[in-house]
Design brief:
It comes from Liquorilactobacillus oeni DSM 19972. This protein is α/β, with parallel strands linked by helices. The protein has a single domain (about 5-185, about 215-240), classed as 3-Layer(aba) Sandwich (Rossmann fold). About 45% of the residues lie in helices and about 15% in strands. Strands 3-2-1-4-5-6-7 form a 7-stranded parallel β-sheet, sandwiched between helices. The longest helix has 29 residues, at about 100-130. About 40% of the residues are buried.
Length: about 250
């Protein structure tokens, strides 16, 4: 039985991915900074899935010590890790001059440094076993620019290019690294927007809707599994078409 570690696993896309991996008979180590939400998620998951395949570790993905503790806990419960899903992330609004230094450092730590730390402590075992997959949650905001989202654009832009370097470095060990790049997704964070804003997002999509977390989960699982064995170093948008428009007006 294979094992996956998923960060940001207590809600949204991470929780949807957790459920799908469990449905596919993987062991799942849930990692999340929110201890209460993580324990609640495990309690709910054990109603539908075998508890011996589920574990939770409170984790600060921006802390080397915390990631080392996650690695040790995973090894103790499940042994070898076959896949790491770097899904944890935060969002910061504002033009660059409006963003505080603290907010800038925080988003870079959670959205970018976390991938460095998770790779540093989990990849050596993958190298030894000559197999493994890593899936990072990037964003279409790393592929394009947005108004009032400079720090987020910078962080996700780093993730978008980091995946290529990781894929080049680890391919010789049979380790594949890919990104899923979601567009606006129906997570609790997105649902906190006013109804009018949600309506505007839906209208901006060529499909007239936003992405559901379960749709992201399917792509995460695909990239983590052997079904994608010929894919590495790629950014896969899952966006209902948000990133395909040039911005030019309709020409008659």
């Amino acid at each position: 039985m294979k094992t996956v570690v998923i960060t940001g696993a207590a809600s949204g896309m991470g929780l949807s991915a957790t459920k799908l991996f469990l449905e596919k008979n993987w062991n799942v180590m849930l990692a999340d900074f929110n201890d209460e939400a993580g324990k609640k998620a495990v309690k709910e998951l054990t109603k539908s899935y075998q508890k011996e395949h589920i574990a939770f570790q409170k984790t600060n993905v921006a802390s080397a010590q915390s990631v080392k503790e996650l690695k040790a806990a995973t090894a103790k419960v499940f042994g070898a890790v076959d896949s790491v899903v770097n899904n944890a992330g935060i969002f910061t609004k504002g033009a660059l001059h409006e963003v505080s230094e603290e907010a800038w450092d925080r988003i870079m730590a959670v959205d970018v440094k976390s991938i460095f730390l998770m790779t540093k402590y989990f990849v050596p075992d993958m190298i030894q076993q000559k197999a493994g997959t890593i899936v990072n949650t990037a964003s279409i905001s790393g592929l394009t620019g947005d108004y009032n989202m400079a720090a987020y654009n910078a962080a996700k832009g780093a993730v978008v290019n980091l995946v290529r370097a990781m894929a080049l470095d680890y391919g010789k060990y049979n380790i594949r690294v890919n990104n899923v790049a979601p567009g606006p997704t129906n997570t609790p964070m997105f649902q906190a927007n006013p109804p009018q804003v949600i309506k505007q997002f839906k209208e901006a999509s060529p499909l007239g809707r936003i992405v559901e977390p379960e749709e992201i989960a399917k792509v995460i699982y695909f990239l983590a599994s052997e079904d994608s064995h010929a894919i590495t170093g790629e950014n896969i948008p899952v966006s209902t078409g948000f990133e395909i428009y040039s911005g030019q007006p309709v020409q008659n």
